[in-house]
Amino acid sequence: MDYQLAMYVGAMFMAGWAVLLAWGARKPIERRGLLLITAGFLLLSVIIELVAFSNMLGGAMFVFGVSKRLILTVLFTFAYFYSRKAR
Predict the structure, then answer these.
(1) Residues whose CB falls within 8 Å of the CB of residue 50, separated by 6 or more in sequence, listed in order
(2) Which of 3, 29, 46, 67 reaches 20 to 30 Å from 39, CA-CA?
(3) What angle do CA 24, 12, 67 make, to 5 degrees?
């Protein structure tokens, strides 16, 4: 039951963040700060996962998940600084 509640709460936050990013896509230059916030949360999730699951540092899915989030962090950060030039 606790696991199911945690999954519902996680799904709620993911849905809310998706709506927030869709809102930011409507006026991307004015709301570019969302990119840095998203990059920060992605990097924080990578750090937490590395600390919490350091005993599984070899599984393919673990490496894939961490590398995917690191790539997204770099892309969001690059998009933020690129948008500053476009302004």
Answers:
(1) 57, 66
(2) 3
(3) 70
